[in-house]
Amino acid sequence: MGEAEEISSKQKQISISEFFEKNKHFLGFDTLQRAVITAVKEAVDNSLDACEEARILPDIRVELHRTKTDELQMTTQDNGPGIPRDAIENVFGKFLLGSRFHAIRQTRGQQGIGITGVVMYSQLTTGSKTHVVSKIKSDSSAVYVDLGIDTKKNKAIKSGEKRDVWVDDKTGEEVSHGLRIRTLMKAKYQKGKKSVYQYLRMTSIVNPHASITLVVRDKEGEIVEEGQWLRTTDKLPRVVEEIKPHPHGIHLGTLQRMMREAQDRRMTSFLNNNFSGVTRRAAKQILEVAEIEETRTPKRIKAEEAQAVVSAFQTVKLLKPPMDCLSPIEDLLIKKGLSKAIDSRFASTVTRNPSVSQGNPFQIEVGLVFGGDIAADGPIEILRFANRVPLMYQQGGCLLTKALESVDWKRYGLDQPGGTGIPKGPAAVLIHLASTNVQFTSEAKEAVSFDETVFDEIRKAMLEVGRGLKNHLKKSSQRKKAKEKFELVNIILPEISRKSSELLDREEPDLAPVITQIMNAVFLEEELSWNKEDKLSMCSITVHNYTARARAYTILAKWPEGPDTAMSYNPTGGRKETNGLWAWRLDTLDPGTSMVLEFGISGLSKGEWNETDIFFRGNGEIIGATKMDENLLEEQRKTEALEAAMEEVRKKENDAMIETLAIKPERVPDASGHAEQAEVLLEEAPPPTGEWRFGMEGDDQ
Amino acid sequence: MSDAAPRRNKEQVVEALHDVAAEMHNKMQRGDPPRMTLPVRSKSNISFDNRLGVFKYGKKKTVRDATSLGSARQLLRTLHITEFIEEMIDNGKSSTLREMYYISEAWGHGKFGTQNESNNLAEDLEIVTKCLREDFKLRPEEDGARIIGNITVEERNRRGDWMRINCRDDVGDSGYGVPYNVESEKLRLVDEDIDFVMAIETGGMFDRLIENGFDEEARCALVHLKGQPARSTRRIMRRISDEWKKPIVVFADCDPWSFRIFASIAYGAIKTAHISEYLATKEATYLGITADDILAYDLPSDDLTKQDTGALEAELSDPRFSSGYWQEQIKLMQEMGKKAEQQSLAKYGLDFVTDTYLPEKLDAIGLGYR
Question: Residues of CATH 1.10.10.10 domain(s) within chain B?
């Protein structure tokens, strides 16, 4: 080793432990209360990521044991794939901070310093080693090893390594694969809003496929807090694809690094092969705009020229990056996760279509629960997530919060003193940002930084769930009104008749015409229930005609139509009106009579369907149903047709790209031809109302 | 004018109540929702009756019909009350309004939500049937006034004997307690040696004047109103005014609520406008504390609350306060944004009220005694 190298290495040695010491706050170890949350977070995030990659439904156990004042022993155990013996050092011994940025896909892990930080913190505060047990399926025994960090060399020091059969303390059975970490650290357990409990509760909401347990013990071994969150679905998040970076998100430094490392000999193939959204034709255009010859070698491109390429990225028309690098939780699972954690009456959820900001694909999901056991007096609870990881600190400075605050919640039935800010009421809102590149305000990675496109998307999602809430509240009040009317004519009125007749010693009058006069309306009540025997989600609609005339209606009901669901029980027949909307033409309903309409949906589990919308066609009003807006229906049909067409185009585009890659240059014009076609279609579409989703309408024009 | 309120016999009362039930029954027989018609009981429907000299309900009617659950319940309750009153008349019983509220527990869907509701319904029935609640055998819970002064009354006690009571010599410091019924069958005004009657809003000031011997020095009877005065308090003042021709002066706090106390004494209360001619004493005078007293005597004052401001605003359009005097007082108070209590006079010592303030104020209205 030369002298220079030795010096630089020495600087590095000092800087790593110093770096940790100086930056405790943004590494999440600044307070004793926070240190334990961060440690649990690093371990659990790794477990969830590993299980997801290995397609295992995660079972995660967290145990915290207070050993003395301000000292805790943390044990985490998962049923993941385990870590092969030779990789253990790397996983636990290297600071991965900032090293993952070129893997462009949605992961949890990109958000923390990594488990290495935990090992380091344990060593710095208690001088102890971290004990790791790892078992991979293909080995016959587990690896037991103690780890420390050599701060001089920035690598793990292994000691006490042995191999043995791993028997689970809880079940007494041999573990076939999994990982257990046990470490001692200076830390303090705290209950409440910012606690390990809350962190795991939030984690379980957005990871409905995971089962998580928590046990916290004091010095005497007494349990002070425990939690258990069982999985509500066996559906693992889908496998996310790694994608290449999109030019719109590329900075000069990154481009230069990529060019230095590139194996391509020509700039055209470099651009075409290393970026998403860049067709061969686009690559040629970029080089033309940047005034760089196509045949130049990437390694030889000078800084000014690279800058010209970066500028050209913004002017040349590019395709969007592919979206399969994102893993949304999906409406239904958010609903399940939320109702598991919060006892509420109503849930409205939205998964927006993926969108792109500065070359980074992202997707917004929002869930709102209302009523039930939620406290009504304070501000609503905001549950923020980035890539399925809970954000627990810096709520006020976070983009997700700001987008929520920008909505006029009074319009949707929540109290919002002063007309802005966090609304009050018995509600909780979940906001999930899935992105290949979550931009945080600081290294603490607790608050998402401002981005107009993301902000707009969140707002749109909020408005959507807000409309759901408003609808629900309107329906509740209508239902209440209807209930009152029923009480009036069925209970109070007959009593008035009886009492007055008694007092006056007269005959009781015929009340039928009186009732007709009082009600003078058609009432509709719907009830959703679960048929256990046939596993059907049942909907029963009752229509009462309390008017003096015979009435004839078509009743329409929303139902969760999808590839997995079917209308399995439907004795009344009717027909499909549009996607997710069924229509029945009713027989004439005579004055004073009522009728019941029933149908059942298969393919859902209990509690998944708990709210529907009923519409009607016909004369006069129906209390409890909405008059069908034919224009809106027409618009929705158009949107659906448009989405289908877009899907078609996207497919063809993909095929074309694959063909392009297969070096069939004559096909190239075709591919871009499709792209243009897609844009034309978009221009023809009606202006976005916010009501219907148009998906990824162009922001990269 | 000193006539007692006209009383009805049992049959007339029952008949009047049956008319209410009949209105409901007739409507239902015709296929319409049952209903009850009654005058609007708000300031928008009271007007000055020139003949009687007090404020009475006007011609505005409101219909309570069974098209909403709330109103339908009111109708059902009205029928239950009717039945209950008939039973009491038949059995020679009576009950307090509060007892009726508890009895309604057994009325199922006709049960009262609050006592206020039952009081209001009883008043509604009085108005519609033109009977008094005494005819219905219903007694108020409300607390009658206390009186101290050299007047003598005879009250028929619970054994049916007439007791003679001098309200200065035969009573303790708390004075003579006015019963809820002060009609001639229960109370006679026998003798007096006073020049006027002073009605006082607060107990603190009432006790101050007694301690200072004001009733004897100024030759007056002191009446403690206990806030918004009960019907019997207003009625006895009316009888003293009619039968003995003695002036009535009202000494209250200076705030919008005190103005309303005075209005109910002198002009008639909105809630009881159907019997204003028996309860209101149109000769009564507002002595103080006036809004200009706050300035003239530099009294310690408090800022008006939001409720105060709202009440003042409402009084501006209350027909009972339409005179120039009241409009001036209300606007002055609005301008100052201040109110003051009677007891703020203690700023100048405990005797200031009897040595200076009251003599000056009484002098100004021609009741000077020095």
Answer: 10-139
Contact in structure between A554 and A618 (CB atoms under 8 Å)? yes
Specify the domain boundaries for CATH 3.40.1360.10 within chain B: 146-364
Please give the mean pLDDT across all residues of chain B. 90
Question: Do A496 and B28 make contact, defined as CB atoms within 8 angstroms?
Answer: yes
Q: Residues of A168-204 as b/e, b for ≥16 C-beta within 10 angstroms?
A: eeeeeeebebbbbbbbbbbbebbeeeebbbbbbbbbb
Rounded distance, CA B103 to CA B111, Å? 9
DSSP strands (E only) in A187-288:
211-217, 223-229
Name the residue facing B33 among A500, A501, A514 (closest C-beta). A514
Alpha helices in B30-153 (DSSP H): 69-91, 97-103, 115-129
Residue A37 near residue A195, CB atoms below 8 Å:
yes
In the block, tokens 């063909």 appear at A659
Could you tell me how many residues make up chain B? 370
Which option is the CATH number for B10-139: 3.20.20.80, 3.40.50.2300, 3.90.950.10, 1.10.10.10? 1.10.10.10
Q: Can you tell me the distance from the alpha carbon of A248 to that of A315, in angstroms, rounded to the nearest whole number? A: 10
The ipTM value here is 0.77
Catalytic residue among B102, B267, B278, B286: B102
Judged by DSSP in three states, A324 sits in: coil
pLDDT value for A113: 60
Query: Cα–Cα distance between B211 and A195 in angstroms, integer?
Result: 66
**3-state DSSP call for residue A338?**
helix
- Cα three-residue angle B89-B95-B99, rounded to 5 degrees: 135
User: Which residue among A487, A495, A518 sits closest to B67, beta carbon to beta carbon?
Assistant: A518
Confidence at residue B334, expressed as pLDDT on a 0 to 100 scale: 94
3-state helix, strand, coil in chain A (%, to 5): 40, 25, 40
Q: Could you read off the pLDDT of A541-587 as tens digits, one per residue? A: 999 888 888 889 999 999 988 888 999 999 999 999 888 899 999 88
* Average pLDDT estimate for A352-359: 84
In the A/B pair of chains, how many CB contacts fall below 8 A?
78
Q: Where are the alpha helices (DSSP H) in A245-330?
A: 252-261, 267-274, 280-290, 303-315
Contact A410, A416 (CB under 8 A): yes
Question: CB of A501 within 8 Å of any CB in chain B?
Answer: yes
Nearest-neighbour CA in chain A from B104: distance (Å): 15
Under the banding of pLDDT at 50, 70 and 90, the label for residue A663 is very low
pLDDT at res. B120: 87
Q: Does the active-site annotation cover B102?
A: yes
- For B127-183, the pLDDT digits (tens) are 888 888 888 888 887 667 899 999 999 999 888 899 999 999 999 888 999 988 888
Q: In what order do the strands lie in the sheet with A622-623?
A: A566-569, A594-602, A536-545, A522-531, A622-623
Q: Which CATH architecture has domain B146-364?
A: 3-Layer(aba) Sandwich (3.40)
Percent of chain B scored above 70 by pLDDT? 98
Residues B20-62: pLDDT tens digits? 999 999 999 999 999 999 888 888 888 888 888 888 888 888 8
Angle ∠(A448,A77,A112) on CA atoms, nearest 5:
20
| Distance set, CA B369 to CA B354, B358, B361 (Å) | 12, 10, 11
pLDDT for residue A659: 53
Amino acid identity of residue A675, one-letter, is A
pLDDT in tens, A195-225: 999 999 999 988 989 999 999 999 998 999 9
Please answer yes or no on whether B31 and A517 come within 8 Å at the CB atom.
Answer: yes
- The fraction of chain A above a pLDDT of 90, given in percent, is 30
Q: Which of B31, B79, B86 sits opposite A514 (nearest CB)?
A: B31
pLDDT in tens, A158-175: 899 999 999 988 888 899
